[in-house]
Amino acid sequence: MENKHYDLKPILTYLTIIIISLIALQLIKSLDISYPITITTTTKSSELAVVGEGKLDIVPDIAYVDAGITVNAADSVQIAKDTINSTNNKIVESLKNLGIRKEDIKTSNYSIYPDYSYDNNVNKIRGYTGNATVSITVRDINQVPQVIEKATQAGANQVNGARFSIEKPENYREKVRDMAITNAKEQALKLAKNLGIRLGRITNIVESSPDNTYMPYAMKSLPMGGGGGGPAEMEPGTQTVTSTVTLYFEKK
């Protein structure tokens, strides 16, 4: 009878991977971890992958305000055009007097179109509607309430909101990336100690694409009626810049 010999090495390797993964999951629950991490034992039994995260909450340093101009039932295209231009010039001048730079004020979405009425199956022009938007970049976010107030006083009849943002989030990404790497190293050392293994050099570093989608704070459209008191206070809040890295360590 022929004796068959089986190579048990692959089976033992996969059993080792499963056992280490189960132990790691239990250790994670008992460790004091300030950031969420992911532990992965690769198919190469000599590697351990650790995911670390860094994040910073940043106060926005720039704001954007859209002031709309709407003209209804103008008797002619020229009247609609003149009304829009006059209001636009007043808004721009008012903002410049507030210290907003000319290059931070842009007029867009300019349109004029006829309004029709139907009489005896005949289309008749009953007037013209005109629209324009003055887009304002506010580099001193403390000025946002004054910008909105001045724009409405000058004739804007639709303020779509103030959007706060971080002008250059890339200025913070290197620091956040360093935080993520430090976090991953710290957690890897804790795990190595508790697992009773020694870590060698880092063989690879992978940074996930940051999903720093800034959800801007937007103030609701303002009523255009009169009223007492000064401009309302607005809080920009904070926005988060994040980085996630995966470090691959040799296991000794």
Automatic annotation (TrEMBL):
The protein, known as: SIMPL domain-containing protein
InterPro entries, per database record: 26kDa_periplasmic_antigen, SIMPL/DUF541
Xref: Pfam families: SIMPL
Domain of life: Bacteria
One Gene Ontology term from the biological process aspect of the record: DNA damage response
Keyword Transmembrane annotated: yes
Transmembrane segments annotated in the record for this chain: 12-28
Keywords, comma-separated and alphabetical: Membrane, Transmembrane, Transmembrane helix
